[in-house]
Design brief:
Layout (H helix, E strand, L loop, with lengths): L2 E2 H8 L5 E3 L7 E3 L15 E5 L15 E5 L14 E4 L5 H27 L4 H12 L3 E5 L4 E5 L18 H8 L2 H5 L6 E4 L8 E8 L2 E9 L10 H16 L11 H11 L5 H10 L7 E8 L2 H6 L2 H11 L3 E6 L2 E7 H8 L4 H11 L3 E4 L3 E2 L4 H18 L5 E3 H13 L5 H4 L2 H13 L3 H10 L4 H8 L3 H14 L1
Parallel strand pairs: 4-5, 5-6, 15-17
Antiparallel strand pairs: 1-3, 2-6, 7-8, 7-11, 9-10, 10-11, 12-14, 12-15, 12-16, 13-14
Helix pairs in contact: 2-3, 13-14, 18-19
Length: 485
Amino acid sequence: MKLSAAYIIYKLKKHIRLSEQAAASLAPVLKAPYFQCDFGDFQEGGIYIYDGKASSFDHVHLPSNLLIFCLKDQKLPSLFSKKSIVFVLDDTDFVTLYNLLQSIFNEITKWQEAIMNSRLNGESIQQLLALSAPLFENSMVVIGMDFTVVAAQLFGDHFYQETVFGSSDTTYPYVTELKQDELYNAVREKEGFFYYPNKTTGTASLCVNLKKFGKTTHRLLLLEDLSPIDSCYGFLLEELARMIEHAFSHNAVHRTVKDMTLHSIIQMFLTDRTSDYVTISQKLDNLGWYSRHEYECLVLQTTYMDQENLTAKATCNYLENIIPHSCAVLHSDNIVVFINHTLSQEEQGDYNVSDKIIYFIRDSLMKAGFSRLMVGHLNLRRQYVQARIALELGNKKNPSKWIHHFNDISFDYILEQATKKLPGYMISHEKLLKLKIMDENNDTDYMHTLELYLDNHLNAVKTARELFIHRSTFLYRLDKIKEIL
């Protein structure tokens, strides 16, 4: 494998003192050195050690990519002045430097063979990271764009140890901030390696996007936790990324065991309206979600950023962590959560779910609809419909609110359904229409007065006060309304 001048110099500086004439290239174009005494024939991508013994450089052609080390106290010919020159500042001799260079190439060759054999043997992505972490000298993580941690080779404590980064109160703020971060969104489809600062997670990283069909689905991170990371590792990180992309294409992901039975049952009755509810009820009973229990459904409207960043899965895990005895699934671009209130109250006592998640919903720029509390399994799908209606109609009625309960919009829903085939004036009582026409013709306020009187539960004093009229005036107006109706 060819290496970059920057990487070779970076590794050598751990053993000897060097001084570069110019910034070293990050491009991996240099081949392993071989012992050569004659400087008369320079090779493209060659590495040379100049000890002052070469006598003539007449008619020498210098290729564009090469690296020359000049040992101490040797004056370099002017021919090399503008090329990749590195001066050795201590008393390192020719053989020692040559052996150091060979050891650098040998280490990379062994690593490349190890990860290639790992892929040929069908081993997991976790194994690829385990083989690579010693070389990169820092923690490494493969994370999905939905913040699912696929594999991690970590040194010390990290929140990346969670199955889904962002699935707890401690880490979910990072997800919210990353989704809204301009830089994070700018590098989503970036090609090649790039540096991501520590402004959000507190740990900087060197990253490579992992793609499928040209779209980023995962990201490889080299964390700056044990030692400072250098861009010279970038081309090696890209090589590892190619192996991981190959592993993804062959489904070589180390998966954690998780019981998804409850999730699959909920997905079943959400997607299939003809599902056998007796069978579903029996399956839920087997999982401890009994028909005598009380349930509630919550539907969250995902945002464009969630859909672009594929972060809905992280949100599902977070909701299941903060709401006891809940099950969250993705359905029709929304997140659907069913909550077993009986089990939750036995464990947590009486609490309000909307109060518990209001700040999370606000910070995530989401909207939520809640169904009514109902006992049993037969109405679970109808509760989902209730929650979805609460979300859709609530957003129309009051778009500034974050949470909408079906009980708050049920009357509006009844009116909306009643006027689907006939307009409102065809359904309304004809004498109410007469009252409306009288208001329009005589500039009276009978319709508004009647509406306010009913809203105040027939309280004449309160209604008169809100209309800014005397009580006797209101009673006179009420008599006129009664005559008309």
